[in-house]
Each structure stands twice: as C-alpha cells, then as structure tokens.
Amino acid sequence: MASHSAAAPAVGRPRVVGDPWQRALVLSYILLIFFFIYPLAQLFISSVRAADGGWTLTHFREFFALSYYRSALYHSLYVGVMVTVLATALGVPLAAAVARWGVPGKALLRALIVLPLVSPPFIGAYSWILLLGRSGWITQLVQHAGLPWAGTIYGSKGIILALTLNLYPFVFLVVSASITSIDPSLEDAAANLGATPWRTFRTVTAPLLMPAILGGALLVFLTALADFGSAVVIGETYLVLPTLIYSLFINEMGGEPAMAATASVVLLVCTTAVLLIERWYISRRSYVMSGLRRRGERRASPRARAAATAFTYGVVGVSLIPAAVVMLTSFFPSSGPVMHPGFSVGNYLMVFSTVPRAMLNSLFLSGASTLLCVVLGVVIGYLLVRRPGRATGGLDALLMVPYAIPGTVLAVALIRAFGVPPLLLTGTVAILITSYVVRRLPYAVRGVVAVLHNIEPATEEASLSLGASPWRTFGRVTLPLMAPGIISGAVMTWVQVISEISSTILLYYGPWATISIVIYQQVLSNNYGTAAAASSLLLLAVFVPLLAFNVWQGEKAAELV
Amino acid sequence: MIKVNTCAARRLLAAALVMTLGGAVAVTGCGRSKGGRSAVVVYTAEKDEIIQAVRPLWSKAAPGANMSALVSGTNEVVQRIRSEQRRPLGDVLWGVGAEGIVANPDLFEPYTPAQAKAIDPRWLAVAKGEPWIPNNVVPMVLMYNTKLVTASEAPRGWRDLADPRWKGKLAYAAPDKSGSAYTQLATMVAVFGDNDAGWKTIERIMRNARILQSSGYVPKGVADGEYHVGITYENVAGLYLQGGAAVKIVYPVEGTAVIPDGNALIRNAPHPEAAKRFLDFLIDKPVQEVLARELAVRSCRTDVAAPPGLPPIDEVKAAPNFDFRWSAEHRKALIEKWQAIVLRLPQ
Lengths: 561, 347
What we know:
The complex is a heterodimer.
Chain A: H1 2-7, H2 20-46, H3 58-65, H4 67-100, H5 106-114, H6 123-132, H7 137-144, H8 156-179, H9 184-192, H10 197-226, H11 229-234, H12 241-249, H13 257-284, H14 302-319, H15 321-329, E1 334-335, E2 338-339, H16 346-351, H17 355-386, H18 390-404, H19 407-418, H20 429-452, H21 457-465, H22 470-498, H23 504-507, H24 515-524, H25 528-560
Antiparallel strand pairs in A: 1-2
Chain B: H1 2-29, E1 40-44, H2 48-61, E2 67-71, H3 74-83, E3 92-97, H4 98-102, E4 108-109, H5 121-127, E5 133-145, E6 170-173, H6 179-192, H7 196-208, E7 209-212, H8 217-224, E8 229-233, H9 234-242, E9 247-250, E10 258-266, H10 272-282, H11 285-295, H12 324-329, H13 331-344
Parallel strand pairs in B: 1-2, 1-3, 6-7, 6-8
Antiparallel strand pairs in B: 3-10, 4-10, 5-8, 5-9, 5-10
Helix pairs in contact in B: 2-11, 6-7, 7-13
C-alpha cells in the first residue's frame, strides 16, 4: 500500500488524488455499518413500526404524552448537564495544576486520578450510601454530634455527586493531553507583549484548550446520560432514561421492545444534538500551532504551588472515597450478606478460586479491545479532523450511536445479528471484543480529535512536499504529535472496558467470566463483602500497571528533557 | 521533546501487547472447559453459595459431566435465552422466579423429572400445564429492622403498611421491573380486593413506600437501616437473619403468596440428555436436604424439613384469594393501575 501511494507523490495540500485516507474512510464506514448499524437497525426500525406491520409514530407520541416517560427524559438531561458542568469545573483546573504548577508526585497522581473511572459494578455507588445514606457512617457521626442532617443522598443529588466524582477524570485526561501540546512560545509572546497571566490564559491558553475541554465535557455528558449503575443504586424513586430503557427492554416478564427502542432513539437525538453543537463551536474557532515545542512546567511561586497541590490532592482524595470504602469493607468479616465490624481476609479467601482466572480474562479482553480501539481511533480521529466534510461528518455521527444504547441493549442486538450464520460470533470471545470496541471506540476517537485540532497541517504538508509518502508522513510526523491524545484515549478505553458489566453479562460464556462478572455475581448473591474483595483486586489490577507506566515514562521523559 | 511522546506511545503499545499476549497465553494455558456430549450448560439466577454447594454434588452424581454455570439476574438470564433463541447455547434454566418462565413459555420445553411425585402436589399444581418444574418454595414476607422498630410496633400484615407512620420508611421494589415485586403487588390485590377500596389501600401503602429499582436493595436497605420496613421474600430475608443482621421476618396475618422458584429445559438445548439428568438431580432428596439445611432454601419436596429457624410451610398462612395463574394473566392491567397510582404521588 505504501509503495503504491508513493508512486503518486502527494504535493501541496494533503487532499490529493490517490489519497490512501479515502480508502481508510471507506473501510471505517464498512466496519461501522457492519458492527454498529446492522445489529441496531432492527431495534431502531421497531420504534416506528406498528403492531400490524405498518409505519407509525404512536410510540413517540406515547413517549411524550406520558409524564412517566417525559420525566425520565428531563431527569436524564438535568443530571447530564449538572454532572458535565461540575466535572469540567473540577477537571480543567486539575489538569492545569498537574501539568503546569509543579504539583509533587505526578506519576502517582496520574494513576490515582484515573481510578474513579473504574467503578466496580454497583459497589462503587453503594459506597456513597454506606457513608451518606439515612444510616450512613457520616450521617450518624453528624447526628451524634447533634448537628442537623440536611436531606439525603438519594435522588438526583446523589447521582450527580457520584457521577461527577466518577467522570471528571475524562476531562482531566483529555485536557492534560492537550495542555502538553501547547506551544509555549505563544504564551511567552503574550506575556512579553505585556499581557497579565489572566489575560494570557483567557486569550491564548483557553482558546487553544477549548477543543479538549469540549471533547472531555462531551464524553462526560454522554457517559452521564447513559449511566445505569449509579441511578439504580442511589436514584431510589428518581427515574432516568437508561433505567427506563433497561426495564422496558430487559424484563423477565417480556418487556416492551418498541417503547425501549423509542426511548433509545430519544436518547440518541439528545446525544447527537450535543455532538453537533460541539462540532459547530469548534469549526467556528479553530486555532492551530506548529506543535513542535512542548510546554514544561512553569516556575510557580511557592504559595501558588502549595495552593495547587492542596487543590489537587483534595479533589483526588474526595473522588477516591468510594474506592477507599470498598477496600475498607473488603476486610470486614462477613457472614452471608451481613458485614460485621472487625478484620478478616475471609472475603479474599472466598473469591480466591475464581478471581485469578477472571482477572486474566479481563486483562486480555481489555488489552485486545484497547489495541483495536487505538488503531481504529487514530485512523477515524485523523479523518474527522484532517478530512472534514460530509462523509466524515456522517462517520462522526455514526460513532455517537453506541453512546445512546445501553450496553445490555447493544448486547442483545449483537446476539441477534451474529448468533446465526453467516457470521457466528455468539459463544466465542470475538463477540465480547466486538461489543467492547463498538462501545468504547468514541473515547479513543475523542482523545485523538482533541489533540489533533491544535496541530497545524503545515508540518505534515512539509513532510509530504519533501517527498515522504502519506503513510510515512503519518507514521513519522503526525502520529508522534498525536501521542498524548492516543495515550489518554487508550487509558480511558482500557479502564472502562476492564470494569464493563452490562453487555458482558449477556455475552460471556463458559470460561470467559471477567472480574466484573465475578463482582456482579457476588452483588447478586448479596455478598457485599466478597464483592468488595474482588473489587479491591480489580482496582489494584488497574492501579499498578498505570503507576508502573507513569513511573517508567516519567523517568524517560526526565532524561530526554 | 517529541521523542518523549513517541516513546510513550510505543511503550504504551508495547505494554498493551504484552498484556494481551500474556493474557492470551495464560488463558489458553488454563485450558478450555471440557465440552463433550455429557457437559451441561446451566443458566441460573441462583446465589453463588448455592452453585458452589451443588457443584461437588453434581460431579459425584454424574462423574465426568462438566457443569458450566452462567449466573446473572433473572431479567438478564431470560433475555439471554430469548436472544439466543435461534441458536441456543444453554441447556437448563435453574432457580428463577416462576413468573419469568410463565411469561416466556415459547423458550422452554416441558419435561417431567423422574421424581416428580415426591414434589408437594400444591406446587406441582401451580406448574401444571406449564413448561417448568418447582425447585424450591418462596413465601413473600415483610422484614423490619429491629434497631429502628420494636416487635410491638412492627407491622403484622399488609394492611398495617398503609399506616402513615411508615411514610418514607417502607422499601418496595418497582413491580414493573422485578418479578417478585409484581407477585407482592398481586398478593396485595388478592388481599384487599381488585376494586376501588382495595386499590385505595394500595395507594396508601405506595404513599409510604420508597420505590427501589431492584428487589435486591430492599432487604439490604432494611438490614443497613436505610429503611425501617421492607416488602421482600423469605429466602433472601432468611440469609440476612442467618448472617446476624438486626432484622426480623413477618409472615403477614392476612396470608401471603407462596410461589415456587422453578427449573426448566431450554427449547432446542444443545445437550438435552445431560440437561434432563441435571433437572432430575436438582430435586433429588440429598441435594434438596443440603440446600435446606445449609443455605435456607425451602424444599419443594414433602419429605424435606424446613430450613433451621424458619417455620414449616404449613404454618405459613397462604393468602386465600391469591392465584398464581390469575396473577400471571393480569400482569399488564395491574402494572398499569400501579403506575397510575405512582404517577399521582408527589415525588
């Protein structure tokens, strides 16, 4: 392929005859249509099908006529917006503090910040009830101290609290990747021209970071909108769309698939609208840099540094509370579903027969899915930014589809599409990987897109005009520039896949139970002690490799600077 | 500086590769499950301890016949069987609420196990004409937290739940999401009557209730002290009781629904012979005795004693008007009435 492309040397603008990216575009479309659209088509069509086989909009009319459904939509949008605003307000300053203000212990911090994304099924959210529920530990402390306890954790407040602290790492990861690629000479120029630090930030840094901030915020919004676990555990009577879709679709008593499809389409319309707004905003103000120089840390005053450190460790500390509670309770002796005070490793012994194998499964599945996501994400992300147009715009919109579909519904669609010849995937490991890649690809793409928006095409054009083939240019020039985005996308994909439960539960078979399946089974058996033990091992399995990677990369970086 | 990031990307790729390959080697090394014609694939909503207890008994009863269990909630298990309808991967459905089987008769094949006559005729009658076999028996019960409610304050039956003093303190799972919660709603309809007065009482109960999204959170919330009283079922409440939680079980004075959990043969099961053997095995007396004695599973057989600490089934008053079949047939109507009530309530 490379030699073929080289035969028609590319000059000037990258859009040239024989552009290999055209082929990549076609291939991406084929993959997306085959693995996303084809399985889901049946579902979407059922939302506009009447019982007699004709076409109808009654399901949509019913959806908007009944306050039962409408209120779920309002609740979802309210939670989504609040979580996005709060997570962005936490994530952006945090990324700036870690990248710029010399906060100590970076390798550790970067590994810790990612941990809240690994919310073990149902256990993570349950920690908040243990702390702040009506008989929670903190609630009781406050009441013993004679202070009035305002309100309860249940309902929208609790969901917003849990999701904000669960999802702000998305903003942190995407924005951090982008901050490191900001050309320092731009800020220095502003400062030399007499701009105050605030003015420099407002007029130079913030606009450059905007694609990343919006990219991270978009991920938070979409994930919050699709959240099921926290809403089920903490929502109590507060019904949101994913809980509604789940109960309409996955119901032992025979659900209402058409209504579930309708609710999914409504969710899809919301996500697509938000995506279009983001694209419109970015297309209006696009700033690029040569990107060849990277920003080091600022020399901050000790006071500023102390403040940044306190803020960073404060936020990270609070967001790790659920993980800490899980680890703590994993050492409580338990008999059946009841945990007693004390110390014991009994919970760990109970899960010892299943956990090692499940952990290997999880590492293998998340590793393989992440690899696939990264490769596809780089190609698609590059197409979206560098070859804008109708065809790539459509690709971007297609990518949003899996967001609006709860994992369980996607799993059912996959079983129905690939459970019969010609392509038999059920009962194989391929169907698990397919579902992970389909659902997590947008994260990898967003990571790449956010960084690529700031990189000037001129660098690539220079390489092309010097005679390098498009692939060589991509591999030697573009790819290295995208590296921070690729890494942040890969980390987001990996941690999310490793704790995935909703589609795994329908797709795994025989020996392929993952660690999240083990946790979920213990939760189902009401064994919160053993579930906490398995969850702690999962958290450790995510934390240790991340820390090792950060330390390894950090030292290397220090040598080269 | 760019080099740093190239290195980082390469390193990440290398790390991912190592993990993937390492995982693949380890996973293949562990060996795939021994398949073969005698293997049986069981889809179940049973608790982990029950599966662990049954596993060694099965390998003794059928040496060499590997049992592979896929465990999840009743909702997911049934949905999975439905999705795989055109190419079933599972053989047996084990230990799920009978509501879930009765609502999906097309997914299962009728099978009568060898020892069917040992099953209490009351439960056989419930399953008559339907493609399932009673496995264990589950009375619907109330449960209260003894730290928050004294024995004299505790509700004695369904009607007591309508007392305004339980406002915000009563936990109940949404009957449109949970099969057991639906049976509890149908029980209340049977007790109070399917008429205006009856539904008025149910509305007063719903005014007090916190509607939870999953039935598992009811006993857990009561044991944790999040709620004072909960509407739940005996075998899960029994586990909290045995585990030493500060809870007590109440068998409603008006009577309650007693429903068998069921097993069923999945239609077009890939291993039908092993499946039938497993279905026979599940109602064997020794198996039922172990589960009753050690895991508080109330047997469907007449010749196995009630689990320790739980009353014999004949002492549990059955709701005189509750009929399982009527309840299954009127599900849509009852759920709609319930939803209308809940929508009227202030959130």
